[in-house]
Amino acid sequence: MNGNAADDTAAGPLVGVCALSAVAIGIWLRWIQASGTYLNPDEAILFFAGSADTLDELRGNIFRSQHAPLFTLLLHFVQQISSSEMALRLVPLAAGSLFPWVVFKWLGMVWSRTAGLAALVILTLSPPLVSLGAQARGYTLVLLLASCSLYCLDTGIARRSAGRVIVSAVCGGLALLTEYSAAFFVGGAALYFLLRVRQGIPGRLIAVWIIGQGVLGALCLGLYWTLASQLLAESRNVTVMNSAFSGAYRAPNQSLAAFLAAGTARQFSYALGSHAMGALAMLAFVVGLWRLSQARQYALAVLLSSPLVLAWGGALLSHPFGRSRHTAVLSLFIVGGVAIGLERFLTRRTAPAVIAALGTVVYLTGWTDVSDITPSRHRLESMRAGIAYLRDTVPPDGVLLTDGETALILQYYLRDRQHTPVARRTLREAHFGQLHLVSNGRWDFENIDRLAADIAWLRELPGAGSKRSIWIADGGFAAFLRSSLRVRYPQLVIPDERDFDGALQVFRLPSEL
Asked: Is 330 inside a domain boundary?
């Protein structure tokens, strides 16, 4: 179904060379990030969910998780070999590096290799997707499974292969089992196939596809009723002003049209890494849909646009719809449409150079996920220095108070073979050598007033209350307790204060508090 073969501006061996070069660069960029950053709290949650000692414990962790079960299971098996940062991130790194190549092959088959090359370069160099591929999360695995599913579906139709249609359905099912947002892709792919039926698909393939869709539909319903529905209900209670989810949920007085329009713009900003590039991408996407309609490729136009529309429905059910990884699967379709629109302005001679320049601009001007830890304070060496300082400085008669997200990081880096988990949402204690670690049970310290309540509770806690000194460790996604103390108490002297490049802030609680 190559609807633009005659107009392919960059056909020939050069395209393949450029594509392989881009993949190699993508692997290198992701490897550098994965090997140089510490495990963030969300990664640590997945690590400890997968580190269960029994199947019953693993099943319980899965039912308490905010994610579909497959990636947690995968981490469980990875940990049997190694629990290092790189081992935990190896599958996401490989998936994040390879899925743009699959998109290149797929888009080259259904439209043109030039568009495929443009999509590959953008997806490879987009800073949010580079960062996502360097973390122990399942989102890049979903992107790989979704792109493989599309490639197998179209090659199955072209070659009249029932086996490839089955593989396509299997990839779709695995994507659903990895992240719930894959439902947007599965729905769009179903509409795509139904529109392709008019092009003379054999009845045998249609029958196989219908069976596969039945299984996928049952899987969607099963995941919704057993896992996702509770998560969506919890999402409705998320404070819309929370900076980590800014714009991801509809504000009480916000009109539906304004919310969906702003959310859609944010998807383009995420895929391209900046507001400016996102705005240009929206224009290119519209041009791409127009080109598809001119070529009567209506099925492909629906495939590229319908996941966005389905994400609108997800947003109404309280699925996050902001500039974040939670809807990263949409990047595949957004960039596909952008690449087709961009091709309109390329010539055979200029295509490789323009695409390379565009990819460079996307990478150099983009930022990472707005809800992630900034690169300046995400260095692994800084966290290791902070951990060493805690081990050497906090005395045996001291107690280390942290918030929930910092406790998760410390738990990972202080753990031994018999580590004791610190619960995310409840007040828990753990001992790591001479360190007595206590979590306040909340995701972050929030404000000074809550800190006072934490200290009062801690001093009444048996064992901890008798300690002579209380130390604070603040890190994770939000580390602003020390600055908040300075604002509230300008004359306050904070003893034994150390800042490890923002990765971890450690100080002893002033006696005045």
From this structure: yes
